[in-house]
Structure formats: structure tokens, C-alpha cells
Write a structure and sequence with these properties.
With 648 residues, the chain is an alpha/beta fold. It folds into three domains: 2-301, 3-Layer(aba) Sandwich (Rossmann fold); 333-509, 3-Layer(aba) Sandwich (Rossmann fold), CATH 3.40.50; 527-647, Rossmann fold (3-Layer(aba) Sandwich). The chain is 43% helix and 13% strand. It contains 25 helices and 17 strands. Strand 14 (539-545), helix 21 and strand 15 (566-571) form a beta-alpha-beta unit. Helix 2 (26-42) runs parallel beside helix 3, helix 2 (26-42) crosses helix 9 (219-231) and helix 5 (116-135) crosses helix 16 (404-417). The mean pLDDT is 97.
């Protein structure tokens, strides 16, 4: 029977790849193959020839340890994964141990850290419902895709997943379909040792439409469940599918099947048990033909129908079609020149500067969407057009609630969906809650934007729990991540332009306290570090500062120059960007053999790259008025002057 052969082909492409690599997770491959088979045979609309087709369905393997299964199905449905790639599983190449974002190979997100993939799926579903509300018309439904994700017990035990599912249920994201591979086993043994909740009641309480499939080996039962879920239109869909981990093997139903490759002998016996006679990595022509008929051709028909609708849409709704084109085109710095009109007539906090920039961006760019984790009045990171809600999908302000980790992952999902510029706001100290999602955005090289305010001990009275010290250093250590700590409105504007035209994610680290404004060209600012105030007498000391510490450094310069000490102030809003400049430029800003004092209200560690003389933090902060705390730790102008004199 072709159905059995197709399912077993998925299984053996996976377990043979794992055995050859001597590394991987065969249990989910054997147990969840019928779920993946059913989804791709009967439901998912994709066209591997056009992997970034905007109205495609998305499939996210949140249980990313099952990557061998994902590579197997993507090979069979025509993505750029060849048999040779399967044979090189978990080595350098196209089939890494956990899925890594690559649309040409049908990988919609980098998953593996449990709970992240399903949270990305929530972001994609949110983005999709927003785009549908924006562009669908009574006469043309241009966008109608679904977001599918396969999750395991581990995913659902992660806090980030529960945060995201809570928001998904609240927002009634009815195009989200969660397929739960429920096999009662996890790495350390049976799930009952760690989990005794009633999944049905829990998911219904979260606002999901819950369905249970008792026989996860039965594709017809899985098909009926998905169809049943999609017939209702008010809620996201959660389908619990009872499966057997390691199905057919001699370790089936045990934790031994989870993360340990099957041996050659075990796989030989498995072939006999499942009556599968093909050699490792051999695929019967009938299986290719089967998926071509059911998955590939259906996807091509759906793509062709979409193109026909798009042509009709272009003729009937020219203005909206033009708007859609702007959604899908990358931005360039010149497109954002309207930000140049923003000015500050007095001292202002960079969180205020950021809020002004985001407001103007949102007015000019209808595809800007985002919000804060219950902090928009403080972070000033808030979308326009009202709140995104089930009855107002056009709202561009997302109320994430106190769900920072979910916010980070959902922002990534919105960004991955495409066509939208997504941002999320929180206090900088809570970037610790978001770091796994921020890190994944950097691994994927996607331009998510994270707006972090209350950036230092200058927060004041809330005390050390809310005063970031080590966070800047931690984020700067992440490859491919832009970490911007602007000192004024000009720097803030310049780096929003960079963030929106970048292929990598950006974190804005912004002050609560008001800061002085000073002039600089955008080109200088975008070099990462530049001379903010040049010495007026022979140079004796260079003060290098970021963000809120530039203001007291400028004040210290005035005092030092009054005493005949030639002082230069260098602002470094983007340390990594500055260090990547050529040596000629760096030395023009920081002359060779010059005395340098680095000043930042955070860990000293990054600044040892430039100098041993650093005013920084070696302890946590204190609870008191922000100005007093800054003075206590030596970040006021007078303390800087004293420090400089000791250095000289």
C-alpha cells in the first residue's frame, strides 16, 4: 500500500541518516511520521520552486530535535535537499542537527531550543491575520494561509511556549494549528514523572479548540481532526495526537528511543518489523510520484490560483496592490529620510527620542507593527492604529502583557513571516528573559528590533533588580547582533535607519534620564564611534562614552578644558561597528598613544579592548534617586574629572 510505503520512507530516511551520523533523535522520526505524512499529503500548500511565496502555508518543526524527519519530507516534496544531504546529516552542509532557517530548503525558522518554534508560529499567525485584514476584500480573498507547527511534551513544558499560547488564545489566532506529538515519553523517562496536568482543560482554558486523536498511527484520523479544527473559525486549533515514540523498534515506548541512534542491527530488525525492503537512502519511484501528485501539484495549483487572484487584485484594487508591493520590498536609507525632520528642542531621554522615531516610522510605514510587554507608557514603544485584537486585526499595537520571552519569539515570528517590520519593547534588565529569542534572531540573521529602555543604574529607586549591569556585555558578545546605545536623538534616528535596512537584528539600549543634544553627521554616527566634541588645546585625554554617559563626559570636558587639559569626547553608540572600522579611522578618533578613559554604566569587560582606564561597574547598583546613584558610582562630571586627573 502506497500510504504505508510513503510513511515508512519518511521513517527510514530519518533513522538511516541518524545511524550514519551516529547522532540524532530517532524516536520522533518513527513516531511522528504519520503526522507529517498527513499534513503534507492532505493540507499544506507550498511550492518549492517559489519558497518565499507570501501566501504559502508555514510549517514549523518546534520539536527541532526531529530535524531528520523534516529533511526527509522536504526532500520528497522538492525542496533543495538531496539524498546526499541526508547522508551528510549533522555534518557541515545542508542538514544540521537542528533546523536552521533556510527557505530554499523549506526551513521556516531555526528551532531546537524547545518552546521557540511554537512561539515563532504564534508570531507568524499574528502577522498572517494582520495581513489578511489589511489586504483581503469582499470580492477577493488574497491571503488565506495556515500556520502549522509540530510540538512535543518538552515544548509544552517550556515557559516561553505557555506565554505564547496564552497570547494566541487571547487573540483568537484561528489560522494557527498546533499538532502535539503526545507520546508520554521525554529524555529522562516517562512524562508522568514531571507532568500531570489535564492538557484538554488547560488548552481550552487558554482559548484553544482542542481535539484528541487516540491513534496517531492512523493518517485518516489525523486528517479528520485537522479538517474538524479548520471548520471552526473562532479559535486557534490544538490537536493532541497519541503516538508511540520509536514506533516499530525494540526500544519503542521508552526514553531510550529519544536521543540515541539505533544500531545497524536494530535498524535491520526494524526493516523486518515494518516490512520495508529498501536499502538505506533508497526511495521508491512510486513514493516520489505519490508526493508529486498530492503535495507538489496541489501546491503548484495553489500558487497558480494565487497569481491569478493577484492579477485580478492589481486591476481592481490598484492602491492596495501598490501598498502590498511596498510591504514586500526592502527598505533603503533614502526611504527613511523623513526622519531627518525630527528635532529635539531640549534635553530628552533616548527612550523619548525612540518613541518619537517609532511614531513617525509607524505613520510613514504602514507595515510597522509592535508593542511592549505591559510597559509602553515607559518604553514609548507602541504601535499605531489601535490595539491588535480579535475584532481589530488592523491594530498595530500589540499588547504582549508581561510576557517578555514570548514577545521576543513572537517578534521573530512576525519578522520571519515577511512584509512587516516588527519591534518589541521592555526594560533592558528583562532582556535576560528575552535573550534566547534575541540569540536565535542573530543566528537566523533576521532584522527583528528590540527596544530596551531604563538602561543602567540611572534607573534609580527601583534598585539593583531593575538596574542592568552585565546585560550590555552579554548582548555585545552575540555574533550578528547590532547593539545600539545612542546618546541623543540624532544617534537614535541614525540607528533606526540602520536597523530597518539591516539583515541582522538590532537592540536599542535607551535611557530613562534626559540627555544633552549635540550635532553630528549621520555618516560619522554610523561609523559606530566618532568625535562628539574635539579638544580646543593640545590633546591630553580622550573620554570614550556611550548613551547616557556622554552627557556627563561633555560636562567633564568643559571643566577639564577650563583647567587647561586638552580633552576630546568620543561617542560610541555602536561599539562593535566602531571596532570594525579600518585602523586609519579608529586612530583618527583615538590617536595612537593617547590616554583614553572609557565611561559606561555597565560591566567594564568590553572596554579593555581600548584601554585599561575604565569607569564602569564591578558591582550591582543601589536603590536611590537615579542622579545620586550615578554620582555614587562615579558617573557624574565631577567624578570623571577626578578620575582623569589620577590617570594623568
Amino acid at each position: 500500500m502506497i500510504q504505508e510505503k510513503a510513511i515508512n520512507t519518511l521513517r527510514f530516511l530519518g533513522v538511516d541518516a541518524i545511524e550514519k551520523a551516529n547522532s540524532g533523535h530517532p524516536g520522533i522520526v518513527l513516531g511522528a511520521a504519520p503526522i507529517i505524512y498527513t499534513l503534507f499529503k492532505d493540507f499544506i500548500n507550498i511550492d518549492a520552486r517559489y519558497p518565499s511565496w507570501y501566501n504559502r502555508d508555514r510549517f514549523i518543526l518546534s520539536a527541532g530535535h526531529g530535524s531528520a524527519l523534516l529533511y526527509a519530507i522536504n526532500h520528497l516534496v522538492g525542496y533543495d535537499i538531496k539524498v546526499e544531504d541526508l547522508q551528510q546529516f549533522r555534518t557541515f552542509g545542508h542538514t544540521p542537527g537542528h533546523p536552521e532557517y533556510d527557505l530554499k530548503r523549506g526551513i521556516e525558522t531555526t528551532s531546537g531550543p524547545l518552546g521557540q518554534g511554537v512561539s515563532n508560529a504564534v508570531g507568524m499567525a499574528l502577522a498572517s491575520t494582520h495581513v489578511q485584514a489589511r489586504f483581503n476584500k469582499e470580492d477577493i480573498t488574497l491571503f488565506n494561509n495556515y500556520i502549522y507547527t509540530l510540538v512535543g511534551d518538552g515544548d509544552l513544558q517550556e515557559g516561553v511556549a505557555l506565554e505564547s499560547l496564552s497570547l494566541a488564545g487571547h487573540l483568537k489566532l484561528n489560522n494557527l494549528v498546533i499538532l502535539f506529538d503526545s507520546n508520554d515519553i521525554q529524555l529522562d523517562g516517562e512524562v508522568k514523572y514531571t507532568f500531570s496536568e489535564d492538557t484538554k482543560k488547560k488548552m481550552e482554558a487558554l482559548g484553544f479548540y482542542y481535539i484528541k486523536v487516540l491513534d496517531g498511527m492512523n493518517p485518516e484520523a489525523i486528517k479528520k481532526a485537522i479538517k474538524k479544527g479548520q471548520r471552526q473559525q473562532d479559535k486557534p486549533i490544538f490537536i493532541e495526537i497519541k503516538t508511540e515514540i520509536g514506533f516499530g523498534s525494540d526500544v519503542s515506548g521508552t526514553s531510550s528511543a529519544h536521543g540515541k541512534p539505533l544500531s545497524k542491527d536494530q535498524i535491520t530488525q526494524l526493516r523486518k518489523t515494518l516490512n520495508y525492503t529498501y536499502a538505506p537512502f533508497e526511495v521508491d519511484h512510486d513514493v516520489y510520484a505519490f508526493f508529486h501528485k498530492h503535495t507538489i501539484l496541489r501546491g503548484r495549483r495553489a500558487y497558480r490560483t494565487y497569481q491569478q487572484k493577484l492579477n485580478t487584485y492589481k486591476a481592481l484594487h490598484q492602491e492596495d496592490f501598490a501598498l502590498l508591493e511596498t510591504y514586500l520590498k526592502p527598505l533603503h536609507r533614502n526611504d527613511l529620510s523623513f526622519l531627518d525632520a525630527l528635532t529635539a528642542s531640549k534635553d530628552e531621554a533616548t527612550r523619548v527620542s525612540s518613541g518619537k522615531v517609532l511614531d513617525l516610522l509607524s505613520k510613514q510605514l504602514p507595515n510597522m507593527i509592535g508593542g511592549s510587554a505591559d510597559l509602553s507608557s515607559s518604553t514609548k514603544a507602541k504601535g499605531l492604529d489601535g490595539h491588535f485584537m480579535p475584532d481589530h486585526r488592523l491594530g498595530r499595537n500589540i499588547n504582549f502583557g508581561v510576557r517578555e520571552h514570548a514577545m521576543g519569539a513572537i517578534i521573530n515570528g512576525i519578522t520571519l513571516y515577511g512584509g512587516l517590520h516588527a519591534f518589541g519593547g521592555a526594560f533592558f534588565v528583562f532582556s535576560d528573559y528575552m535573550k534566547p529569542s534575541i540569540r536565535l534572531s542573530a543566528i537566523m540573521n533576521i532584522p527583528s528590533i528590540f527596544v530596551m529602555t531604563h538602561d543602567s543604574i540611572g534607573v534609580g529607586e527601583d534598585g539593583p533588580t531593575h538596574q542592568p549591569v552585565e546585560q550590555l556585555t552579554g548582548l555585545r558578545a552575540i555574533p550578528n547582533l547590532n547593539v545600539f546605545r545612542p546618546a541623543n536623538l540624532n544617534e537614535t534616528k541614525a540607528y533606526y535607519k540602520k536597523a530597518l535596512t539591516s539583515k541582522t537584528p538590532s537592540v536599542f539600549v535607551l535611557s530613562r534620564q534626559d540627555l544633552k543634544q549635540f550635532d553630528a553627521t549621520e555618516n560619522d554616527i554610523l561609523k559606530g564611534g566618532y568625535i562628539a566634541s574635539k579638544e580646543t588645546s593640545p590633546l591630553q585625554i580622550v573620554l570614550v562614552a556611550t548613551g547616557s554617559e556622554v552627557t556627563p563626559s561633555l560636562e567633564a570636558k568643559t571643566q577639564l578644558e577650563a583647567e587647561g587639559i586638552g580633552c576630546r569626547v568620543v561617542s560610541v553608540p555602536h561599539l562593535e561597528g566602531f571596532l570594525k572600522q579600518n585602523q586609519t579611522y579608529i586612530q583618527s578618533v583615538l590617536p595612537k598613544n593617547s590616554k583614553i578613559v572609557a565611561i559606561e554604566a555597565g560591566s567594564k569587560m568590553p572596554w579593555y579592548q581600548l584601554t585599561k582606564d575604565i569607569i564602569g561597574m564591578d558591582t550591582f547598583g543601589e536603590s536611590a534617586d537615579g542622579d545620586l546613584v550615578m554620582e555614587h558610582f562615579g558617573f557624574d562630571a565631577l567624578s570623571i574629572v577626578h578620575f582623569v586627573k589620577n590617570v594623568l
